[in-house]
Amino acid sequence: MVKVYAINGVTPVVHPTAYVHPSAVLIGDVIVGARCYVGPLASMRGDFGRLILEEGANLQDTCVMHGFPGEDTVVEADGHIGHGAVLHGCRIKRNAMVGMNAVVMDRAVVGEESIVAAMSFVKAGMVIPPRSMVMGMPARIMRELTEQEVNWKSFGTRQYHDLAVRSMDTMREVEALTEVEPNRARIDLGPDPHTHKE
Fold first, then answer.
1. Rounded CA gap, 129 and 112, in Å?
2. Which positions are tagged coiled coil (predicted)?
3. Contact 42, 63 (CB under 8 A)
């Protein structure tokens, strides 16, 4: 059971196939779609504008989503928001990625299948075309993404689809062990496409 907070009579909505970590905070006008993943300590504060994660999007550890009254902050389908990123009043289009600790400001639009590099600052109102690599403070469009880079991003997002299912199926609050057990198991997810050769 996800613990959420209503404000002004508006209660967050979490699709039954989405995973929201118990330490995440969801307040007010928040809509989390099917197959989404919301990580530990993420904050979705829908006390002014509406916050939407569309199907298959992920919002990772310590991310913040917030916005202005009467406006929506949206991560479209399969959007991928890296650890510690801040989204304020912006739109992240389908299958785009915002890297770790990046900031995307009000009325900015990150185009479909684009990547905002880690630590970048996307200024208010910036419109990023599809399949762009964006980086810097302030962020600038550097080049078009390659097919390989888009495929890499898409693979990473599929891992978060799987993580939502694994988390719902196997994550439990438990007592810590006091020592490492013999033959300690590892989490095996199969070959890593970054190192695997065909």
1. 7
2. none
3. yes
- Assigned token pair, 165: 């299912």
Q: Which two three-digit tokens encode residue 192?
A: 């890593």
Integer Cα distance of 65 and 48 in angstroms: 11
Q: Is the bond preceding 12 in cis, omega lying within 30 degrees of 0?
A: no
- Report pTM: 0.90
Torsion sign across C-alpha atoms 94, 143, 109, 119: positive
- pLDDT classification of 192: cutoffs 50, 70, 90: low
Report residue 188 as tokens.
């095996």
Contacts for 56 with CB less than 8 Å, ≥ 6 apart: 33, 34, 35, 36, 77, 78, 157, 161
Residue 39 is encoded by which pair of tokens? 């990580």
- Whether residue 32 is predicted with pLDDT greater than 80 in this model: the reply is yes
